[in-house]
Amino acid sequence: MSTLPSIDLGLMAEHLAAHEGVINKLQYYYHISSTPRLKSILSLQTEVMLNHVKVMMAFINPHNNESINVSPIPDYSDISLNMEVQEAPYHDKWITLEAHNTAKCMANENFTSSLMMKNQNVKKAHEDMALQQAHIQDLYNELISNMNWSYVPRSSLNAQTQTYQFYQQVYS
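Structure (tokenized):
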């Protein structure tokens, strides 16, 4: 492999430092949570992030000459979307909300970094990592929704119609 552009190396060094903290946090959350579905998502996110570390380490290894790809997300079919709503301890709620935010931040960070990266393989890998974190965020969203831990306000039909009509005039 040829040497990496400095921006790519710097961003990955920053990501590796952040991953160490996030992986340890997710492992801690896994051990204190009790909701099976939450534990499955936390385990999946930890496994995905450990894979991301391997990918970045392979990219920064100057002696690596092998092709580097982000492994697909493992099949966690036990993360059923149709599980009944069950009572969960309060700490499982805040763990879910915080881990959801972590997945969102990691997806955003990986995508934003990919826009700045110069090496096309490194760039593509970080786009893939961003999509994986977005998928994990969706799993947390479904759990949050099923447990009734959030409220999403809806706009009125009137407000939506007025907005549509306004922009229909702007662009016609």
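The chain has five helices and no strands. Residues 6-170 form a domain with the Ferritin fold (CATH 1.20.1260).
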